[in-house]
């Protein structure tokens, strides 16, 4: 939804403290906003000291930021003798970020504030092999529901999508102007273009293993951790690395595709995905159910149920010996590779994620056994290995962080801050126009405030 | 029946059978003499009374004392004050139904920080994580309940009609799931129908919401209300103004069951199993207090109830005979 009302009202007026060129104003506005947003400065005095800008300029920029409702100075800070200074706070409720995770078997959506904090989320089963048009329409419907449910009715400023495959970005890319390649079945489908046009906002996209690692780093087990190895176990097995508190993407955004590495097991050589991923777990579980060697899985099959990796994991959890063996075999294969990575990277935390890892302790135990057994003592001395507690929420939190950091990236912020909102930025408006032809069929107008789910 | 929905963090549901107590668990719990408090969103619904019966009975079997039951009256401030007070009373566990989302999240987190096991029922405020902020969530398959409500209503709606979705204006996981599922089923299975969403901010506003809905959409062909208490208020309002329309809802409360049997607007109910959910909540509490691993989300399926099976469904849900008003109407 464009926040076009801000275009006129936010344009800096000439006055005391104003620099003579717009670039200078944008730069100092960005500097001050990011000092407030990051919590590095809480009062005008702290802003003057940390920004090295004069009192008049700080006062003027704060007036502009208050005018566009990005900072709030209504509260008082604690007094340290004398009059209490005004507290300068970032208004995270100024606008909203929509996020989604597309997974092989589920769709998750959420709405977040400008700090990247999730406000509401929803997850539902979905088959990603269904036609992309249907999935994109469902995504748009759920996004409209989230906006209608938002009690602040705040404008939308950005959209983040997490997808189950590496996302190639060109150097210098900020928001996307075309859908990058992320899954063969979605090749040529203009997902980014449709969403950008439908909601009139910039769109960002990252791989699910990246967003989940980001989410875990900011709101999960990785909070405060600088060196983390994140492993996602599903149909595909992927890894993400955090070094010095920052996510490493690799030259093409393809870092961590460990599922492609060849492994040997049971007399054959194949990729880790094939030998230890959820397809293998489901296949071996189904064979055990059909052969009657697993009473728990045979019972599910006899009642007309489907055997997926989840059922095998749940059966293992309640002591079904064949299911335990299948999970343990997968865990050891993954663990051996994770041990190699741990020896190379020396992380302080390894987080195992994905629905199988979270429903099953045996996989985690097998990975732990392999890593502790095959790593240098120094590597494992203070190493923690845990299962994610965030589940698919990690991908949503991570996608919101991607958007939040991109919106307030100093160079991007400088470009929109004088327009009052990123949705009023001329470069975005031009890009939306260009994307128009790719989004034929999508509604041209923003969603109605009370649009129902599925409407 | 299978579980249609996913958990608050996208989890797959674990069945309540995962919580079965062994004789040694019961003995161990009896030896420890645990003390527990229950914090309800309301104590005024049949659903609450049934699930409390399941909780108290099961805990009693294991020698666990229910020291206090708090009725929050749907008020976040009441719940926050209750949780703050209970956190200092040396309890082993608190079973709570969060009445809101972000507003009550911190008060619930403080329970866990105080070293008290926190078992949630029906709702998880966004951002709270299992294993860190709470032990486990037990709920109905709320997504599945919405699907049942849509299917039962659809059977009564002619081609091309408009149906109403009367939902709670508060951000609440359980009612959100029902609302989303209802819409999804209609779009997928009855694309000929128009869907109109109406939100009520509180139970006290249901009558007014119903009246404005009738005024704005006089041709509405049917209505789904996200739980039975507001549904009964909507039905009473429809009767007052003499407006006839089929209604489906969630929860087999006594009044809703009677309306269903007597053909008083209600044509179908997606029933939770509150007594069994209460038993599961109590079992999850005991197992976690004994240091056993419990799944992060345990869900129970809903039941599709029509006039044809209302008497036996009533017995299943209520664990007692259906009232005479139901039996004599069949």
Automatic annotation (TrEMBL), chain A:
<feature type="region of interest" description="Disordered">
    <location>
        <begin position="1"/>
        <end position="24"/>
    </location>
</feature>
<dbReference type="InterPro" id="IPR036388">
    <property type="entry name" value="WH-like_DNA-bd_sf"/>
</dbReference>
<dbReference type="GO" id="GO:0016301">
    <property type="term" value="F:kinase activity"/>
</dbReference>
<keyword id="KW-0418">Kinase</keyword>
<dbReference type="InterPro" id="IPR043129">
    <property type="entry name" value="ATPase_NBD"/>
</dbReference>
<dbReference type="InterPro" id="IPR000600">
    <property type="entry name" value="ROK"/>
</dbReference>
<protein>
    <submittedName>
        <fullName>Sugar kinase</fullName>
    </submittedName>
</protein>
<dbReference type="Pfam" id="PF00480">
    <property type="entry name" value="ROK"/>
</dbReference>
<keyword id="KW-0808">Transferase</keyword>
UniProtKB/TrEMBL annotation, chain B:
<dbReference type="GO" id="GO:0030246">
    <property type="term" value="F:carbohydrate binding"/>
</dbReference>
<dbReference type="Pfam" id="PF13407">
    <property type="entry name" value="Peripla_BP_4"/>
</dbReference>
<feature type="region of interest" description="Disordered">
    <location>
        <begin position="1"/>
        <end position="22"/>
    </location>
</feature>
<protein>
    <submittedName>
        <fullName>Sugar ABC transporter substrate-binding protein</fullName>
    </submittedName>
</protein>
<dbReference type="GO" id="GO:0030313">
    <property type="term" value="C:cell envelope"/>
</dbReference>
<feature type="domain" description="Periplasmic binding protein">
    <location>
        <begin position="36"/>
        <end position="286"/>
    </location>
</feature>
<dbReference type="InterPro" id="IPR028082">
    <property type="entry name" value="Peripla_BP_I"/>
</dbReference>
<comment type="similarity">
    <text>Belongs to the bacterial solute-binding protein 2 family.</text>
</comment>
<keyword id="KW-0732">Signal</keyword>
<dbReference type="InterPro" id="IPR025997">
    <property type="entry name" value="SBP_2_dom"/>
</dbReference>
């Amino acid at each position: 939804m464009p926040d076009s009302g801000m275009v006129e009202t936010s344009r800096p007026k000439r006055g005391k403290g104003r620099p003579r060129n717009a670039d200078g104003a944008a730069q100092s506005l960005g500097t001050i906003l990011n000092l407030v947003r990051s919590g590095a400065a809480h009062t005008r005095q702290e802003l003057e000291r940390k920004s090295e800008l004069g009192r008049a300029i700080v006062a003027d920029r704060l007036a502009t930021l208050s005018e566009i409702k990005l900072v709030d100075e209504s509260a008082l800070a604690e007094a340290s003798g004398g009059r209490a200074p005004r507290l300068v706070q970032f208004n995270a409720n100024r606008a909203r970020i929509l996020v989604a995770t597309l997974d092989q078997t589920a769709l998750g959506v959420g709405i977040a504030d400008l700090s990247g904090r999730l406000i509401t989320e929803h997850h539902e089963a979905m088959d990603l092999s269904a036609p992309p048009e249907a999935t994109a329409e469902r995504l748009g419907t759920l996004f409209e529901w989230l906006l209608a449910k938002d009690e602040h009715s705040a404008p939308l400023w950005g959209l983040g999508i997490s997808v189950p495959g590496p996302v190639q970005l060109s150097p210098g890319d900020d928001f996307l102007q075309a859908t990058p390649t992320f899954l063969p079945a979605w090749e040529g489908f203009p997902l980014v273009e449709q969403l950008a046009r439908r909601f009139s906002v910039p769109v960002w996209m990252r791989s699910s293993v990246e967003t989940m690692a980001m989410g875990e780093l900011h709101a999960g087990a990785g909070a405060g951790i600088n060196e983390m190895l994140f492993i996602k176990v599903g149909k595909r097995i992927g890894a993400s690395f955090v070094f010095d508190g920052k996510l490493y993407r690799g030259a093409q955004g393809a870092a961590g595709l460990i599922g492609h590495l060849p492994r040997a097991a049971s007399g054959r050589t194949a990729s880790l995905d094939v030998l230890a991923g959820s397809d293998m777990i489901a296949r071996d579980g189904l064979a055990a159910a059909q052969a009657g060697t697993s009473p728990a899985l045979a019972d599910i099959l006899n009642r007309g149920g489907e055997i997926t990796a989840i059922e095998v994991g749940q059966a293992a959890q309640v002591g079904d010996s064949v299911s335990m063996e299948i999970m343990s075999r997968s865990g050891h294969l993954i663990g051996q590779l994770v041990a190699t990575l741990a020896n190379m990277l020396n992380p302080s935390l390894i987080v195992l994620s994905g629905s199988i890892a979270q429903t099953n302790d045996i996989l985690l135990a097998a990975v732990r056994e392999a890593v502790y057994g095959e790593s240098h003592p120094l590597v494992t001395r203070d190493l923690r290995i845990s299962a994610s507690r965030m589940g698919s929420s990690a991908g949503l939190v991570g996608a919101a962080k991607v958007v939040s950091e991109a919106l307030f990236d100093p160079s991007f912020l400088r470009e929109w801050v004088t327009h009052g909102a990123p949705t009023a930025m001329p470069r975005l408006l031009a890009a939306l126009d260009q994307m128009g032809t790719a989004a034929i069929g999508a509604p041209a107008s923003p969603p109605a405030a009370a649009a129902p789910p599925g409407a | 029946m299978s579980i249609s929905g996913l958990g608050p963090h996208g989890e797959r549901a674990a069945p309540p059978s995962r919580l079965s107590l062994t004789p040694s668990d019961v003995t161990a719990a009896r030896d420890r003499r645990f003390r527990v408090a229950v914090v309800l969103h309301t104590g005024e619904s049949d659903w609450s009374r049934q699930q409390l019966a399941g909780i108290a009975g099961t805990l009693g079997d294991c020698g666990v004392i229910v020291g206090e039951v708090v009725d929050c009256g749907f008020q976040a401030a009441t719940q926050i004050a209750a949780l703050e007070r209970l956190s200092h009373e040396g309890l082993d566990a608190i079973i709570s139904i969060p009445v809101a989302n972000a507003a009550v999240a911190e008060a619930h987190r403080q329970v866990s920080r105080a070293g008290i096991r926190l078992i949630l029922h029906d709702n998880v405020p966004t951002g709270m994580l299992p294993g860190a902020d709470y032990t486990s969530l037990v709920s109905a398959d709320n997504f599945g309940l919405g699907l049942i409500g849509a299917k039962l209503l659809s059977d009564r709606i002619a081609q091309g009609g408009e149906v109403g979705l009367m939902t709670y204006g508060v951000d609440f996981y359980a009612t959100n799931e029902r609302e989303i599922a209802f819409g999804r089923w209609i779009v997928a299975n009855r694309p000929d129908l128009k869907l109109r969403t109406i939100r009520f901010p509180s139970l006290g506003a249901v009558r007014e919401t119903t009246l404005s809905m009738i005024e704005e959409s006089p041709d509405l062909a049917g209505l789904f209300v996200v739980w039975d208490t507001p549904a009964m208020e909507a039905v009473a309002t429809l009767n007052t103004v003499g407006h006839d329309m089929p209604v489906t809802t969630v929860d087999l409360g006594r009044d809703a069951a009677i309306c269903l049997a007597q053909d008083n607007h209600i044509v179908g109910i997606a029933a939770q199993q509150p007594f069994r959910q209460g038993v599961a909540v109590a079992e999850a509490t005991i197992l976690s207090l004994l240091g056993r691993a419990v799944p992060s989300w345990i869900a129970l399926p809903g039941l599709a109830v029509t006039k044809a099976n209302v008497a036996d469904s009533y017995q299943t849900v209520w664990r007692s005979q259906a009232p005479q008003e139901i039996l004599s109407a069949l």
